[in-house]
């Protein structure tokens, strides 16, 4: 069985081709130095993305729900990356 040495996830935003003022949110999963990017199908106004926190900024209902969604994806990735013995304890 192949063992995972390192698993990480980061979020980033890219400009929309159709509307340069908006950004599409992407996730990048890296596993053993192999990375894969995919769209989360979420669009955000360009000035509402925080590159330092890698989350939306502000307190609008859409930004708050987006940040909760990103946290959910982050936690699911952590749980998937844990050894099965630890997951069974939770």
TrEMBL record:
Which residue intervals define the domain Arm DNA-binding in the entry? 14-73
**What is the designated name of this protein?**
Arm DNA-binding domain-containing protein
Alphabetized Pfam families for the sequence: Arm-DNA-bind_5 (PF17293)
Domain of life of the organism in this record? Bacteria
């Amino acid at each position: 069985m192949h063992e995972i040495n390192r698993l990480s996830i980061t979020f980033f935003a890219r400009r929309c081709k159709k509307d340069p003022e908006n950004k599409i949110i992407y996730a990048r999963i890296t596993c053993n130095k192999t990375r894969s990017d995919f769209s989360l199908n979420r669009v955000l106004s360009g000035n509402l993305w925080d590159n330092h926190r890698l989350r939306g900024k502000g307190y609008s209902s859409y930004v708050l729900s987006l940040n909760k969604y990103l946290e959910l994806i982050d936690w699911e990735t952590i749980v998937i990356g844990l050894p099965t013995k630890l997951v069974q304890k939770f």
